[in-house]
Amino acid sequence: RNYYGGNWASFSFSGLLSWIKENQQKVDISEEREDWRKLILDNEEVLSLSKKDKTIQHVEDFCFGDQDSAEDVEEAGALPKLPVFGASGAEGVAQESEESEKECPPAESTLPEAESREPENATGTEPASAKEGNDTERTSESESSHSTALGESTLELGKTEAAPSEISAQEPKKITYSQIVREGRRFNIDLVSKLLYSRGLLIDLLIKSNVSRYAEFKNATRILAFREGKVEQVPCSRADVFNSRQLTMVEKRMLMKFLTFCLEYEQHPDEYQEYENSTFAQFLRTRKLTPSLQHFVLHSIAMVSETDCSTLEGLQATKKFLQCLGRYGNTPFLFPLYGQGEIPQCFCRMCAVFGGIYCLRHSVQCLVVDKESGRCKAIVDHFGQRISANYFIVEDSYLSENVCTNVCYRQISRAVLITDQSVLNTDAEQQVSILTVPPVDLGKPAVCVIELCSSTMTCMKDTYLVHLTCPSTKTAREDLEPVVQKLFNLNTEKETENEEQEKPRVLWAVYFNMRDSSGVEKNSYNGLPSNVYVCSGPDSALGNDCAVKQAETIFQEMFPTEEFCPPPPNPEDIIYDEDEIAPEESGFSNSPETKPESSAEESSSGTAVKREDNE
């Protein structure tokens, strides 16, 4: 591929259009050279790899506007950039330069004035940069008022609350397709839609490994529910519950009592043990909760299936949600600025700093296997050169059909929409929302909807980027279009019914199915050498725990005595003895005391490099 991250990537709008075209045409990944077979010895055999990416299917895109008017329109501001076609991201190497110290000009009107990126001059507007130990927390007053545990991390958080809109009832501006094309670089569109649990494994890993220095995050500001044909906000925290106008005083007490029980349910086994064989939905009916509270807990807090989730799984999911509240804001979730595709690139940067090499446009023809030992010895690339190694990590999509004959894959249905307004308009325009739409028919999966505003740096001003995800039962369009029709106006004609006029208008949409190989065991693959490790693509879950667990498991199998993603040494602490690096004698220290005082500024400059690439 010629972009970072595989199916975890983010694209500009023009990049996504190119990706769509590639997957609709299904061209070969690489051109094969005939002379590579002479590199294979007599005691070796070849394990061929797939020449086509079959992880994406049923790609359909739709423009709900005048597409012809955009034929001759090009993306504005095409600055000199990395040779990374389509991908949103920055280079996998952290570059130290004078430019990284300069303030990067923000995208035009994509952030409100309160989110100025000049921390030295602005007061109370800079992102929070909290460090382990007794380091000073650089938080604004409004941020610190609802962030209860920022001292636990080294994450950089974009400011949560946007300035209130002066005119909330104003009609949305009319956005044309040609404007979307022209502002295409403002978009960073994820192939996979996820959020980060504030106490999830990925957040812990980002902090521990210091990879968080390369990224910035924004709080998901609200949890929504779809009930009786309407979208409404769900109260999550104690303050939200007691400030809610949609709950009666009795319901508020009921909800707080139940949520308190969920936080410490292990200490009260007598209250749930007789329902262990029941579903969580059945258990909720026994807790004297009103139908609306049952709906909120099941679909918006636990976010589990009504038919397949056991009582214990539901209690665990609810507890996880509640434990993540308050660490960085009023919801449990964070979203990385510039899209989820930034995360793999951040790890690439850290890897590159310590000598790792990430090659784009560099395909592999085959694995070379020793006939006697059965171990993989080398790979042969499309240049016809042989590269030897002790371990090989292969993404599932690269394996040929011969290896995967016994593998049964699940599928994920995905849709990405560009809309002209939010599904729930409030005074604050800049909202990051998560909404679970329950299935119409029992047994069907619920649909997870994540709506991103322009201050997440994933879409242009006056638009919203909406991701829909669910486990597949049919094609993505068949699975998701009914939900899109419930929430949005797909009518391109000017005259529509009043009900449709109130809904956000879809400007552009794409549907596709993505392979979910996360549940496949290694022994399901045929004839795979013992030193070849398979990692899956993205799974359908909202969080990233599956990927982190998989990475750590593979690492520990290869290097059982090594620490997974240890805290990196500071470059200033590395001592070079002549031309040889002697890490044992270099006096590495990972304690907070040895961290230079300028670490916050270094974090800012690290993200500035990335922002400049994206700008």
Explain the overall architecture.
- One of its GO terms (biological process) is vesicle-mediated transport.
- Residues 90-170, 563-615 are annotated as: Disordered.
- One of its GO terms (molecular function) is transferase activity.
- Keywords: Cytoplasm, GTPase activation, Transferase.
- Residues 132-144 have a biased composition (Basic and acidic residues).
- Mean pLDDT is 78; it is low at 79-154, 158-169 and 581-615.
- It is built from 14 helices and 23 strands.
- The strands form six sheets. An eight-stranded mixed beta sheet has the order 3-20-16-19-18-17-9-10, with helices on both faces. Strands 4-5-8-11-7 form a five-stranded mixed beta sheet, covered by helices on one side.
- 23% of the residues lie in helices and 18% in strands.
- Among the domains are: 1-26 and 55-70 and 174-235 and 334-362 and 406-492 and 502-526, Guanine Nucleotide Dissociation Inhibitor, domain 2 (2-Layer Sandwich); 237-324, Guanine Nucleotide Dissociation Inhibitor, domain 1, CATH 1.10.405.10.
- It has helices at residues 13-25, 141-145, 177-182, 201-209, 238-243, 249-263, 280-285, 291-301, 311-324, 342-353, 476-487, 498-502, 545-558, 599-614, and strands at residues 10-11, 44-48, 56-63, 128-129, 156-158, 189-190, 196-197, 217-219, 222-227, 230-233, 333-336, 364-370, 376-381, 386-388, 392-395, 410-419, 433-437, 447-452, 464-471, 506-516, 532-535, 576-577, 580-581.
- With 615 residues, it is an alpha+beta fold.
